[in-house]
Amino acid sequence: MRILGLSAFYHDSAAALVEDGRIVAAAQEERFTRKKHDSGFPHHAIAFCLEAAGTDLDGIDQVVFYDKPFLKFERLLETYLAFAPNGFRSFRMAIPLWLREKLFQKQLLRDELRKFSADFDWENRLLFTEHHQSHAASAFFPSPFEEAAVLTMDGVGEWTTTSTGFGRGNTLTIRKELHFPHSLGLLYSAFTYYTGFKVNSGEYKVMGLAPYGEPRYAGLILEHLIDLKPDGSFWLDQSYFDYCTGLRMTNERFDRLFGAPPRSPEELLTQRHMDLAASIQAVTEEVVLRLTRALGAETGSDNLCLAGGVALNCVANGKVLRDGAFRNIWIQPAAGDAGGAIGAALAAYHMYHARPRAIGDRIDGMSGSYLGPAFSDDDSERRLREAGARFTRLDDHAMVERAAADLSQGKALGWFQGAMEFGPRALGNRSIIADARSSDMQSVLNLKVKYRESFRPFAPAVLRSDVAEWFDLDSDSPYMLLVADVVARRQRRMTAEEQALFGIEKVNVPRSDIPAVTHVDYSARVQTVHEETNPRFHALLTQFKAVTGCPVLVNTSFNVRGEPIVATPEDAFRCFMGTELDALAVGNLYLVKEEQDMSLRRDYKGAFELD
Description:
Elements: E1 2-7, E2 14-19, E3 22-28, H1 30-33, H2 43-52, E4 62-65, H3 69-83, H4 88-102, H5 105-113, H6 122-125, E5 126-128, H7 131-140, E6 147-153, E7 160-168, E8 171-179, H8 184-194, H9 203-209, H10 218-225, E9 226-228, E10 234-236, H11 252-258, H12 271-299, E11 303-307, H13 314-323, E12 328-331, H14 340-352, H15 377-387, E13 392-393, H16 396-408, E14 413-416, E15 430-435, H17 441-449, E16 459-463, H18 467-470, E17 482-485, H19 496-499, E18 523-529, H20 535-548, E19 552-557, H21 569-578, E20 583-586, E21 589-592
Parallel strand pairs: 1-4, 4-5, 6-11, 11-12, 14-20, 16-18
Antiparallel strand pairs: 1-2, 2-3, 6-7, 7-8, 9-10, 13-21, 14-15, 15-19, 16-19, 17-18, 20-21
Helix pairs in contact: 3-4, 7-14, 8-12, 10-12, 12-13, 16-20
């Protein structure tokens, strides 16, 4: 049985194909269109999934959409009625779009799917799941657990903003829900907006900024904005927010509470902004910890599965693991709306069709999240020649040796290998990699390669067998979704003078043996690398360890600020030539910057809209 799952029309459109319960392909539309967070119908992602499965739409048994648009429309109407006459301007702007596209989304989906098959039987083959059911299914069904508690948290689906449930075998039951407008995701997004970052993409910047500050405003948030109960349920005071009816997240009362208007994008960050980030991060962690403690006590399970946009808060995830309410945690790598495509397909397979679930002896059912397009060396060679690239073709062993040697000499390397990752993280196939031991690599990569804010941290990729030697973590973290401290014996304590530095000035102070991946609070967002899911990246780390004694590399996504992660060899070459990367490995094809035609260089800084 083949089932195609779709996510579209809000942000991060995607498609995923499940065959007999196994995820065989998944991709986000943004990677093909080069428009970050593309929300359009995922034509390219669908075409890829069908090609990967060797079929066309006529060979698909079911197409499943990740939420129910009528319920969303109901929320829109009820919200505006509840707040009337406030918000009439945004209501007037939203209704035509809903009437034209979203209210009749079933018809829109039918018309788009008929472009793949004129005779598509949408009456019998098109299904809709609820939004948080899709999130929960994406969390539990690919997990390695026979049974587990499930927690989903995001901005909002149809009505639900938070749900708890329990999965066993091929069954999954949602037990409790919190409803709009009371939303942890929207609370975090309100502070994302207030601190000057873009909602639905800048939340991870707030998380990265938080360690530079102190949670001085946490008490104010808990006193005025959120009524938090012992079990993690909560109520938000809407008099401080404008997201229900307005065109912004917060209002003037919010400004008065925190003493200033919102920061404008690109305005200089101050200690106050860092303290605000630290405060909302601390409150978010407290909410999540109360939710997980209550869920652990209620279910008695050792296992927890997480999804929804808030599950991408890897700092909170790390604290949940260390808190001990659950022994094991598994987080869907595409925890946001893109992952809803996988969840919708799996929910239909296991719940609607009642098909059995096989766990097996794999790490999980996501295949390392390497579910996107791949390119053979012959195909890549043709594409790169047409792009004007100059390269050397090496065998497997020579390529890994050459890359490890260059990395050990301080070079920054574009690493384009195998199948593209599904989800927001590059996990060693569409990555920029570098030596984690370098004291200046963080600033070099931020300012000369990624063209992004200097405060943003980088993640370490480490051999799974060596993770406990370098980090306070001894469990799998293949998707870069758990934060742990660098072990004490590898830390370097800052002097009193260094401690006294203003926030971001601390970023260039070495704090460990691997300063390029050690945040100012000695934490790191760890990716464990497994030979079973990524033998090429595992071989590179193994060779780098042999050369340097260190099994850790910087791993960041292969793109510049505002650009989707590169998808094709041509994308990789353009990014390589538009940045100060030193070398590029595309499969076994090795490119050195000095050998390229410099007339192909381009100004990459302004090529994409800032995120």
